[in-house]
Design goal:
binds adenosine-5'-diphosphate; alpha/beta; 17 helices; binds magnesium ion; single chain; 456 residues
C-alpha cells in the first residue's frame, strides 16, 4: 500500500460508526432526552412548543406565515384546502446587514412593513380594511418562524435568549419576540394577530402531518440542512419541567439535538473534528451538529485533504480553496458521492472546479472514500438519534407505521443519504425499520407555521 492509502485507511477508521457505537449513541440519546425533559439547564434543551395537537389534513383557512432565519426574511400566505393540499404565495427579501445590529424597533418595523406590503399585493381587500371595522373573522392569524434560541412559555410567547448567525440587537434580548412583532403590526393598524411562535423543526412535523395521506402517525420532524435538529410528539405528562393545566395529552417538543453529547462520551469525534470545532464560532457546543449538518461536512473534508497535503501524501500543489476555511460546500461532497464512472472522471472534474487542483486517479479514489465516510457518518448518526427517539416514545409498539417528515438540502440532495440512515436504523430496529416512513415535508416553514397558528 502507498503512504496515501495507509493514511486514508486510518482516517476512515476514525469516521467509522460501528454497530456498538450506534447502540451506545441511541442509549445516551434516551438518557439525555429524559434529563432535558426534567430540567431547564441541559444542553439538549427539549423545548416545549406548546403545540398540543398534530394536524389531520382536514384543517382549512387562510393564514400568514413569516420566517426570520439567517439571511432572508420570508412572508407568505398559506391557504389550506382541508384535504392535505394547500396554496402558498411567498415573498422573500434580504435582511439589510445594518438592521441585524441596530435596534429591535428598526428590525421589527422593517418586518411589519413587509407584512403590510405583502397583504396589499397578494390578499383580498377584506383583509386590508382598517381594524376598527374588521370583524374577528377578518383578522389574519400569523405563525412566526423564528430560528434563534428562545425561552418559549406559551404558544405565542417567547423571550429571546441570545442572538446567533450574525445578529446582535442588544435591546431585544430578554424580550418577547412575538410582542415586538405584534406592536409594530399594530402601529401600522394591520388586522394581523401573531398567534404562534414556531421552531422550524416543529413546522416540519406539522406540515408533514397535514400532507401525509391521512395516516395520523407523523411523530417526528427532522431538519438536515445548514444545521440539524428534531421535534417529536411527547406525552405532556413526561415533560415534567413544565406544569400545565390542560386537557390535552400530547405536546410537540423541540429537542435541540444539535447539542446532543457536547461532552463527547459516545460520538465518534476525531482530531479532524476537533480542528473544525476549534475554527467554529462556538467551540465545544453543538457537537452532534458539527458531525452531521451541511455547514460542517465540507469543512471536515477540507481539513482532511489539507492535512494529507501537509503530510506530503496528497496533491503535488495546494490552492486557495484548499487553504481557505469554510470554502468547500457540502454540495461538493454530493457531486463526488454521485460519481459512478469507472475512471472517476466526475470526481476529477469536481476537484478541478471546486478546489482548483488537478488530482490523479489514485488521489480521486482516496478522496471518494473519504467523502463516502463523512456522508455515511452523518447519516448513521442522524439514524441513531432517530432510533433514540423512537425507542424513548415506544412509537413502534403503539403504531403499525411511524411517519417522519424531513427538510433540508443534505437529506434532499446528498446521494444515498436516506438509505444510509435506514442502514443505521436497521442495526438497532431490525425488521421494524420497514415500519419507519421517511419523507420530505414540502414548504415546511410556511405551511408548518400556518398550522401552528391554526391550532393555537
Ligand atoms: P437552510 O438550512 O438555511 O434552511 P438548506 O436546507 O438548503 O437551507 O441547507 C443548506 C445547507 O445544505 C448548506 O450547508 C449547504 O452546504 C448544504 N447543501 C446545499 N446543496 C447541497 C447538496 N446538493 N448536497 C448536500 N448538501 C447541500
Ligand atoms: Mg431550512
Amino acid at each position: 500500500m502507498s503512504s496515501l492509502q495507509n493514511r486514508v485507511s486510518e482516517i476512515l477508521q476514525g469516521f467509522e460508526v460501528s454497530h456498538d457505537r450506534i447502540r451506545a449513541i441511541s442509549d445516551e440519546f434516551i438518557r439525555l432526552t429524559n434529563q432535558g425533559l426534567k430540567s431547564n439547564k441541559e444542553a439538549m434543551a427539549m423545548i416545549p412548543s406548546y403545540v398540543t395537537a398534530v394536524p389531520t389534513g382536514k384543517e382549512s383557512g387562510t393564514f400568514l406565515a413569516v420566517d426570520l432565519g439567517g439571511t432572508n426574511f420570508r412572508v407568505c400566505s398559506v391557504h389550506l384546502n382541508g384535504n392535505g393540499t394547500f396554496k402558498l404565495i411567498q415573498s422573500k427579501s434580504v435582511i439589510p446587514k445594518s438592521l441585524m445590529v441596530g435596534s429591535s424597533k428598526e428590525l421589527f418595523s422593517f418586518l411589519a412593513r413587509h407584512v403590510d406590503a405583502f397583504i396589499k399585493t397578494h390578499l383580498d381587500e377584506k383583509f386590508t380594511e382598517d381594524t376598527e371595522s374588521s370583524t374577528s373573522q377578518h383578522i389574519l392569524k400569523l405563525g412566526f418562524t423564528f430560528s434563534f434560541p428562545v425561552n418559549q412559555t406559551a404558544i405565542n410567547k417567547g423571550t429571546l435568549l441570545r442572538w446567533t448567525k450574525g445578529f446582535n440587537i442588544k435591546d431585544a434580548v430578554g424580550k418577547d419576540v412575538c410582542k415586538l412583532l405584534q406592536d409594530e403590526l399594530d402601529a401600522l393598524k394591520l388586522p394581523v394577530h401573531v398567534s404562534a411562535l414556531v421552531n422550524d423543526t416543529v413546522g416540519t412535523l406539522m406540515s408533514r402531518a397535514y400532507s401525509a395521506p391521512g395516516l395520523g402517525n407523523t411523530m417526528l420532524g427532522v431538519i438536515l440542512g445548514t444545521g440539524t435538529n428534531c421535534a417529536y410528539v411527547e406525552n405532556i405528562s413526561s415533560i415534567s419541567k413544565i406544569s400545565l393545566q390542560s386537557d390535552k395529552n400530547i405536546m410537540v417538543v423541540n429537542t435541540e439535538w444539535g447539542s446532543f453529547d457536547n461532552a463527547l462520551t459516545v460520538l465518534p469525534f476525531t482530531s479532524i473534528d476537533s480542528e473544525v470545532d476549534g475554527n467554529s464560532p462556538n467551540p465545544g457546543y453543538h457537537m452532534f451538529e458539527k458531525l452531521v449538518s451541511g455547514m460542517f461536512l465540507g469543512e471536515i473534508l477540507r481539513i482532511t485533504l489539507c492535512n494529507l497535503h501537509k503530510e506530503g501524501v496528497l496533491f503535488s500543489s495546494s490552492s486557495e480553496s484548499l487553504e481557505l476555511p469554510w470554502s468547500i460546500d457540502t454540495s461538493t461532497l454530493s457531486k463526488i458521492e454521485a460519481d459512478n464512472t469507472e475512471d472517476l472522471s466526475k470526481t476529477k472534474e469536481t476537484i478541478s472546479m471546486d478546489l482548483n487542483i488537478v488530482a490523479t486517479l489514485e488521489e480521486c479514489k482516496a478522496i471518494k472514500k473519504i467523502v463516502n465516510a463523512i456522508g455515511k457518518r452523518s447519516a448513521y448518526l442522524a439514524g441513531a438519534a432517530i432510533c433514540g427517539i423512537l425507542t424513548h416514545t415506544r412509537a413502534l409498539e403503539k403504531m403499525e407505521t411511524v411517519d417522519i417528515g424531513l427538510d433540508g438540502s443534505v437529506f434532499e440532495f446528498y446521494p444515498g443519504y436516506e438509505n444510509l440512515m435506514r442502514e443505521s436504523i436497521k442495526y438497532l430496529l431490525g425488521e421494524d425499520e420497514k415500519r419507519v416512513m421517511l419523507d420530505i415535508a414540502k414548504d415546511g416553514s410556511g405551511v408548518g407555521a400556518a398550522l401552528c397558528a391554526l391550532v393555537a
